[in-house]
Amino acid sequence: MTRTWQITGVTDAARARVAVARLAAAYGVPPLERTRLAASLSTRLRQCLTKGGTWRLTLEAAPAPDGAPDAGRGVLHAVVTPEYEAAAAGEPPWRTSVSCPEAVPAVGDDAVADDPAALAEALLGADEDTALVLDRLTEQEALVAFHREELQQTNQGVVALHAELDAAGRAQREAFAAERKARTEAENARRRLTFLADASAVLTASLDHHEIVRRLPDLLVPEYAADVDVWIFDQEGDRNRPPAHAAAAVLAARTGRPQYAAAQPGGLPGVDDQPPSALDPDRPLLCIPLPTRGAPLGVLTLAPPGEPWDPDDAVMLIELTRRAAIAIDHAQRYQHNRDIAETLQRALLTDLPAPPGLSLAARYLPATHGLNIGGDWYDAFRQPDGGVIVVVGDVTGHGLRAAVMMSQLRTALRAYAVDGGSPGRLLTRLHTFLHHLQPDLFATAVIARFHPDDPTMTWAAAGHPPPVLRTPDGRVRTLDAKPGAMLGIPLEQEIADHTELLAPGSTLALYTDGLVERRARGIDPGIERLAEALGSFAPEQLDTDLEGSADGILRPLLSDSERDDDVCLLLCHLDGLG
Predict the structure, then answer these.
(1) Is 70 exceeded by the pLDDT of residue 66?
(2) DSSP code, position 369
(3) Are 364 and 376 contacting, i.e. CB atoms less than 8 angstroms apart?
(4) How far are the Cα atoms of 7, 26, 87, 396 from residue 19, in angstroms, in the given order?
(5) Contact between 443 and 434 (Cβ < 8 Å)
(6) E strand intervals along 85-152
(7) Is 137 helix (H, G, I), strand (E, B) or coil?
(8) Listed residue (319, 259, 326) closest to 288, CA to CA
(9) Any idea what DSSP says for residue 111?
């Protein structure tokens, strides 16, 4: 179906518009689309009338082509083209199309008369369509307003969410920063504690206070100090040596409090701030006293390694100085007690007699650990009948108590020997004496008796390592006759005597277990080594240099410098030279 209208004036344009609206309604075009078609066509026709001339409006109804999105439906095409003058001017045609809900029906002629009533009816119909469009527009505006409000609320929610996310991000960054700070502080604390533990182990490993003082700078430089000065007071406690030490160090010595000398306050806990040192005004100094139970024994002065110390470093350095002071104090006390112990020990060891036909040589070496007061002892003395008693003993344990008990045993033995008696009888009496005097102390001993008129040696042992005998021909054997039990044990015993015929040039070695016993190897290998050492000498050497022979025995047996026990050796040599 095709309809054409020729338009030359307003009436033609109005009549054509009314006809198009009616045809669109007849073809079932929805009111909204129909109003759009009418409004768009009216605007175009007004423009045409303004330009003047004659215009042709063509309305064509056709089915939608196959394959199109609206296939099976109809399409109305409206085309406005110019004629004559306008056509000569090359005015392009105007086109628009609307879809019909159904296929295009056959519609008859719909010419619009010039009747005013018909035009008024068409105008009212157009107003109805316009009202419908306005209602639809109102609905859309309400919908738009609703969505606008919803969008605004959504935007506010998004803004709030962004603010929350930003706050959460800041909180997370702050938490991460706090965690990193805590991890760093924990790592620094672990490093300081490890250093403090390792340094304490180094300082307490020695009992020489001079060695401890030498080790302190090596521990602190360069990590915690660029320079270290250790000032130890002398024996008289003189603390006033200003020419050699900073004023802050002297003040620390007098007050017992750490001092920090610098141009700016250090803010270190437990440390007093002082002006810069006149000896070195450009460098801060940390002066820490070495505290003891009484007064400080010295002052440790440190120069910072670069940056000033932080409070935790200062606390660690003060604690290290306290531990160093304890180690130095213990070492000094140990050295003092060791000197006393050695003096006491030497005083308890008597000079050896020089009986005719018999040479004696003794050696005593204290243990390298402890206070060096042990229970090992030796003695040699004459009996009233001219016999010579030689003894080597060992009281269990160490310390002053063992040394006192050793002295009492030696005195008791000399007293018993005045009345005569064989070695076995003397040991039996010592056993009874020790058991009643000190029930919780025990001892071992070996006694040998020589007489210038008798080549027979009598000996006895109580829980002691066996004597080793070298004959003049260089052969060495152990006198392994069964010994008695230890002295002082809660057991009645009669210790037996043993005899041995000795030729001139024979050598008897009495000793304590410290000479031959080692933890890893036991005592038997040590006795074998002693026998080998004793057999290695020439007879002339034993006759002429028994003292040197004693040293020659000790050297191979004590090649290790660390000894856990005292060592006692007594050599008895029958002169073999004519």
Answers:
(1) no
(2) S
(3) yes
(4) 13, 10, 25, 140
(5) yes
(6) 94-100
(7) helix
(8) 259
(9) P
Residue with tokens 């419908």: 132
3-state DSSP percent of the chain in helix, strand and coil, to 5: 45, 20, 35
Q: CA Rg, the chain, in Å?
A: 62
pTM: 0.54
Decide: helix, strand or coil at residue 475. coil
Q: What is the C-alpha end-to-end distance of the chain, expressed in Å?
A: 169
CA distance 403 to 48: 141
| Highest mean pLDDT: which range of 7-21, 404-418, 468-482, 510-524 | 468-482
Q: Which tokens is 574 given?
A: 């029958």
The counts of H helices and E strands in the chain are 13, 19
Distance CA 509, CA 38 (A): 144
Beta-strand pair 54-63/2-7: antiparallel
Q: How far is CA 38 from each of CA 101, 133, 380, rounded to the nearest angstrom?
A: 18, 12, 149
Question: By CB neighbour count within 10 A (0-12 exposed, 13-18 middle, 19+ buried), where does 111 fall?
Answer: exposed
* C-beta separation of 216 from 324 below 8 A: yes
List CB contacts of 113: < 8 A, sequence separation 6 or more: none
SS3 231: strand
The CA–CA distances, whole Å, from 330 to 57, 123, 145, 386, 532 equal 124, 123, 92, 50, 42
Residue 529: partners with Cβ closer than 8 Å, 6 or more residues away:
516, 556, 557
pLDDT tens by residue, 330-369: 888 888 777 776 676 666 677 899 999 999 999 988 776 5
Question: Which residues are CB-contacts of 86 (< 8 A; sequence separation ≥ 6)?
Answer: 51, 52, 53, 54, 55
- pLDDT for 89: 57
Q: What is the per-residue pLDDT for 88? A: 47
Tens-digit pLDDT profile for residues 226-271: 999 999 887 444 445 545 688 999 999 999 999 999 988 888 999 9
User: Which residues sit opposite 371 in a β-bridge?
Assistant: none
H runs (alpha helix) in 349-389: none
Q: Are 167 and 160 in contact (CB under 8 A)?
A: no
List the alpha helices (DSSP H) in 256-395.
Answer: 311-348
